[in-house]
Sequence to fold (191 residues):
Amino acid sequence: IGTVAAGTAAGVAFLLVSRRALARSRVHVGSLEGAGVRRSVLVFGVLLVHSLPEGFAIGTAFASDTEGLGLFVLVVVGAIALIAIALQNVPEGTSVAIPMQAAGFGARQQFWAAVGTSAPQPVGALLAYFLVEQIQGLLSFSFAFAAGAMLALVVVELAPEAYRRGSLVPAAAGTAAGAALLLVLAAVLGV
Fold:
């Protein structure tokens, strides 16, 4: 529990420090600049960092001494995970694209930024495969770090914007639908 709490706190601190550093800097991408670009960079950065522990988990499973675990993860867990990851990647991609669109980025830039947030996954998988002993000890902390950063991002940046931009009813309905889907998936997967 201490490792998870420390990882979560480190993730929240990462978000807050990154947010403060971006607020103090003149951030621009091409000719675009301003608060929307800062928010876009922050969301992209958090999602980029969030992808690394996912790769760690895959690489650790493949490097395991348990015979067939890598294949099991790839085939059986992979099929279930593919559905869960696909469902997760829709809001992740959307959370990258929405602030980028508001800041004036084009559709192509939004698409490649959303795709780019997953770039650390294969890197993390390779690192974990070759450094399994060292990475296994980091899994709890890294997952908690990613969760803390994502939770802080939602609470500090995304939820206030969702509730401010539209009416209360659609924002609350989206929140409730997401929570309900999470509960259903947890029940189905037995988590």
In short: Residues 69-103 form the longest helix (35 residues).
